[in-house]
Amino acid sequence: MKKTILTVAPLIILAQVVSAQSCAEMSGCAKKVCELELKLKGVSEPHAAARIKAAIAETKANCTDGKVASQDAAKQSEHQMKVDHKINDAKEDIAEAQMKKQKAQAEGKTDKVMKYQHKIEEKQMKIKHLQAQ
Q: Does the N-terminal or the C-terminal CB of the chain have fewer CB atoms within 10 Å?
């Protein structure tokens, strides 16, 4: 019995991954319905399954590709705003660390200079990472 469960579980996960890949190839309402159907397959609680079935029916009845595209655009815009905010915060941190580094250099505190230089480099790497997203 335990062997069967251990053998079947990876197959179920593999099937979900393959299905998720096929949903990724879709777009618009078809993708949304596909993702909900995948979610339904992974749910065992009757109340949760009923809510997902209702969402599938609602999506099939009222979804338009234009609505989905505008929702996706809004999500993308919100994400970009968050990224831009994080980049601005990092730039402010860099400016502050540079001022502290200059003060430490003037006072001859090499350990503090290295500390602030490390912070500057760390924040620059964070900015590069955020810009690459």
A: N
